[in-house]
Amino acid sequence: MSLPTAPVPSLEVSGLAYAYPDGHQALFGVDLTVARGERVALLGPNGAGKTTLVLHLNGILEAGAGTVRVAGLSVAKKNLAEIRRRVGIVFQDPDDQLFMPTVREDVAFGPASAGLRGPELEERVTGALKRVGMEEYATRPPHHLSFGQRRRVAVATVLAMEPEILVLDEPSSNLDPASRRELADILRSLDVTVLMVTHDLPYALELCPRAVILSDGVIAADDRTQDLLCDDALMRRHRLELPFGFDPRSVSVPRP
Amino acid sequence: MGTGHAHKLYRHGHSPVHELPPHCKLAAVLCFVVVVVSTPREAVWAFALYAALLAAVAAVARIPAGFLLKRLVIEVPFVAFALLMPFVVPGEQTELLGVSVSVPGLWGAWNVLAKGTLGVAASVLLASTTELRSLLLGLQRLRLPPLLVEIASFMIRYGDVITDELRRMSVARRSRGFEASGVRHWGVLAKTAGALFIRSYERGERVHLAMVSRGYTGTMPVIDEVTASRTQWAHAAALPVLALVVCLLGWTV
Questions:
Q1: Does any CB of chain B come closer than 8 Å to the CB of residue A124?
Q2: How far apart are CA A64 and CA A27, in angstroms?
C-alpha cells in the first residue's frame, strides 16, 4: 500500500478482533492507519468499541486476532515498556490520570518509570508543563486545580514521555467553552500524531482533518471529517448527531 | 473542592526547623518520644525540662504557643481516661480536695498525662513544620516499606476526591427528600457506604490502568531524593540528645 520511501506510520492496526472473556465480541476486524503527524478523530456511538480499541493500542488488552503496530513496533508482551512510552493515552477523568501528590511528580512519573533521573528528568517535566501552559502550577496538588487545568496537566503527563502518538479519550468532556478552546490551541500547537476519541463532532471538525467512524466493531467510514459530517444518511446510520443549529458546511476548515 | 494549598496541620514558614530534612525530624521526634517514655514518673522536674525543650524548639520554629495548645486538644480522650485512674485504681488512699483517691492511681494518671502530652506536642511540632508530602518522602527515606508509603500517599491524594463524592451522594439523597433522622435510616446510610466503596474500588482500577499506561510495573519510581548533611543531622539530634541527658539524670538523681 505505502511506498517503500514513505515514513513508517505512527499507528497501523490491521484485522484487529477482540472478544471479552464473557464472550461479548467488541471488535470485528478493525483496519486503521494513521500517518506520522496526522490528527484523526475516532467517532462512533456509545458501545461501538472505541474504548476497547484504545486499550489495544498500548497493550492493556491483548488482541484476539490481528495486529497493532506503533511506529513499526508491534504491540506484544516483550515490547510493552517501549509501546507504553510511545503511546500516550489521556483518559477521560483527570482524577484517574493524576494520582501523584503534586503536579510535578505526576508529570515526572512516566519518564521516571522509564529510568530518567536528575536534571534530565526536571527538564522533561518543565518542558511538558510549558507546552500546556501549566509551568507555574508544578508544586500544586492536582485536586486544587480547576477541571480544565487538570485536563491540561493530564496531557502534560503524557507529553513528558515524548510519545509517538497521543490518544485522547473525550478530551472536551466537562470543559467550559474557554477551557475547550485553550485545549484546542494546545493540541494544535503540538507536533505529534493525535488520535482523538470523541462525541463532540464540532470539536473533531475543528481539530482533525480526517475522521473515522467505528460502528459495531468495524471501521464503517474513513474520510475527511467535513465530508463525513455532511453525509446525513451515513451519520444517521451510525447514531451520530450534530448539535442543534450546527451546520458543518458553514465552516471552512483547512484542507489536509 | 480543595480547602487550601496545604494541609491544615502544616504552618507555612521558613525557620531552621522547617528547613531540616524530613527524615531527620522524624527520627528526632521518635527518639525524643522513646526517651520521654522511658523516664521514671517520679522525676517530675525532668518532665518540666522536656516541656522547656519543646518550647525552645517551638520558639526556633516560630510556632506561637496558642497554635500549639489548640492542636493539643486532640489529646482530650486520653486525658479523660487519665482522670479516671485515681478513682478506679486500687491501692493506698489519700484525700485530695475532700475526695478520697488512690495514690498509685494519681501517679498513673500523671504518668499518662505527662508523657502523652509531651509526645503529642512533639508530633504537633513535627506536623506543623513539615509538609505532608515531605513527611512521606522522609518515611520512604527511613526505609518504611514502600507499599505503606504508597498507600499513605494515595490516601492523601484521593481523600478529597472521595469526600467530595460522599458529599455529592448526600446532596443527591437530600434532594430526593431523605433526611437521616434515626435508626430506621441506617440501612440507607449503609448502602451509601457500600456504593462509595464500589465507586472507590472502580476508581482504583481506573487509576491503576492509567499508571500501567504510563509504564508502572509494580514499584514507584524515585522522583525526589531527600538527603541530609551531617550538620542537619546534628541539629535534628539536639532535641533527643538533650532529652537523653535529662532522662539519665532522672534515673540517677
A1: no
A2: 9
